């Protein structure tokens, strides 16, 4: 028992370092699911609600706003010409993974082109819009009262993991903490 009392701070530091390392491993090295790809004929809140029935009206409104704003302010960042829809879907998945998007809205149009010999053929023009529904990074600040000591807190949140630092200027104490979100709604 004397060993634990004597080395309690070292043991706590080792436990905290191991927990932080495990959380970093779980956060940064897990496989991110591919985004859902949807082809919408006309971008409106009503049309998007049909294609995303499980999403809330507020989420669909946000998605509609993001797409309309992107269309009004700029041409699509990613426009590909493909011969088949399968190629178009593969490009959309690739684009979604690069953008780390939650959803991809794809607009397709058939375009008639002429080859070098003057023969007419059709290709598919694809415009992609990445939709990021979740703000993945947050910086937080606050205060805490622990054992009659006031602490100033600063935190950084990356998706479901939050790292916090505590400092009590009056007691000259400091500490760190890690939190993991286990449920969202």
Largest sheet data: 4 strands, mixed
Percent of residues in β-strands: 35-45%
**What is the helix content?**
25-40%
Overall spatial form: elongated
The sequence of SSEs as H and E is: HHEHHEHEEEEEE
Q: Calculate the mean pLDDT score and round it.
A: 79
Alpha plus pi helix count: 5
Strand order of the largest sheet: 1-3-4-2
* N- to C-terminal distance: 44 Å
Give Rg in angstroms: 25 Å
Q: Can you give a write-up of this model?
A:
This protein folds into 2 domains: 2-30 and 136-180, no CATH class; 36-131, no CATH class. The chain has helices at 2-6, 8-28, 45-51, 57-73, 85-99; strands at 36-39, 78-82, 103-114, 120-131, 137-146, 149-158, 161-168, 173-180. By secondary structure, it is of the alpha+beta class. It has a 4-stranded mixed beta sheet, with helices on both faces. Strand 7 and strand 8 (173-180) form a beta hairpin. It is built from 5 helices and 8 strands.
Topology of this structure?
Blueprint: H1 2-6, H2 8-28, E1 36-39, H3 45-51, H4 57-73, E2 78-82, H5 85-99, E3 103-114, E4 120-131, E5 137-146, E6 149-158, E7 161-168, E8 173-180
Parallel strand pairs: 1-3
Antiparallel strand pairs: 2-4, 3-4, 5-6, 6-7, 7-8
Short recap of the structure:
The protein is an alpha+beta fold and 185 residues long. The protein has helices spanning 2-6, 8-28, 45-51, 57-73, 85-99; strands spanning 36-39, 78-82, 103-114, 120-131, 137-146, 149-158, 161-168, 173-180.
List descriptors.
185 residues, alpha+beta, four-stranded mixed β-sheet, four-stranded antiparallel β-sheet, 5 helices, 8 strands, 35% helix
């Amino acid at each position: 028992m004397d060993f634990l009392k004597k080395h309690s701070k070292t043991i706590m530091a080792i436990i905290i370092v191991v927990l932080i390392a495990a959380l970093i491993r779980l956060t940064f090295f897990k496989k991110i699911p591919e985004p859902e790809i949807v082809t919408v004929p006309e971008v409106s809140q009503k049309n998007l609600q049909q294609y995303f029935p499980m999403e809330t009206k507020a989420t669909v409104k946000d998605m509609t706003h993001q797409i309309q704003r992107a269309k009004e302010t700029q041409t699509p960042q990613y426009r590909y010409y493909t011969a088949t829809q399968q190629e178009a879907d593969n490009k959309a998945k690739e684009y979604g993974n690069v953008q780390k998007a939650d959803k991809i809205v794809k607009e397709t149009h058939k375009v008639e082109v002429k080859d070098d010999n003057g023969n007419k053929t059709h290709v598919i023009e694809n415009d992609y819009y990445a939709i990021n529904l979740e703000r993945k990074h947050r910086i937080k600040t606050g205060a805490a009262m622990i054992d009659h000591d006031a602490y100033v807190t600063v935190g950084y949140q990356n998706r479901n993991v939050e790292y916090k630092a505590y400092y009590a200027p009056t007691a000259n104490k400091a500490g760190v903490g890690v939190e993991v979100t286990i449920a969202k709604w």
